[in-house]
Amino acid sequence: MATKHLIQLDDSYIEYYRNLLSNTQAQALYRTLNETLDWQQEHIQIFGKTIASPRLQCFYGDLDVAYRYSGRTFIATPWTDTLAKLKHLISSQTGYPFNGVLCNLYRNGQDAMGWHSDNEPELGQNPVIASFSLGETRNFSLRKTKHTKQCLSLPLEHNSLLLMPEGFQSLYQHAVSRSKKNNDARINLTFRMFYN
């Protein structure tokens, strides 16, 4: 049974759920996703330069769902049965619908993601994003968009769900920094609603 924690920030909040699945289910899901999803190392544009993405990714969703970021357009691969069931569970838990999921595989502590907000036009004006983590615990850092001082670092544990509510992306940026302490792999699934 998932336990929900409300984390209050200066002008917003996040919801954090521990143990969304049973331990046995979470371990089995991690193995299934690691072995069956179509993991790719994409190339993206940052400050005008094309570089290899610092993590492996794949994108699944409803028919004709597309996602544009870092100079690329990604067309969703149809849901696998496993991802569709997980989407239904997370929608039931949070009360929000989702039609796509960006899947991220951090192979070790050297895989990371820099400061950003998920504010692409196809996500709408006030996107809600549900971020589900499996595997190695990694720190999820938050800072206000107009400030460079970090305000919070939250360890995202195995089998946990983080919900970023409406309005959050316009107020805060987030990142997953490199870490010498984290050598095992982490799978992160970010469920979103796309308006194409």
From TrEMBL:
<protein>
    <submittedName>
        <fullName>Alpha-ketoglutarate-dependent dioxygenase AlkB family protein</fullName>
    </submittedName>
</protein>
<dbReference type="InterPro" id="IPR005123">
    <property type="entry name" value="Oxoglu/Fe-dep_dioxygenase_dom"/>
</dbReference>
<dbReference type="InterPro" id="IPR027450">
    <property type="entry name" value="AlkB-like"/>
</dbReference>
<dbReference type="InterPro" id="IPR037151">
    <property type="entry name" value="AlkB-like_sf"/>
</dbReference>
<feature type="domain" description="Fe2OG dioxygenase">
    <location>
        <begin position="97"/>
        <end position="195"/>
    </location>
</feature>
<dbReference type="InterPro" id="IPR032854">
    <property type="entry name" value="ALKBH3"/>
</dbReference>
<keyword id="KW-0223">Dioxygenase</keyword>
<keyword id="KW-0560">Oxidoreductase</keyword>
<dbReference type="GO" id="GO:0051213">
    <property type="term" value="F:dioxygenase activity"/>
</dbReference>
<dbReference type="Pfam" id="PF13532">
    <property type="entry name" value="2OG-FeII_Oxy_2"/>
</dbReference>
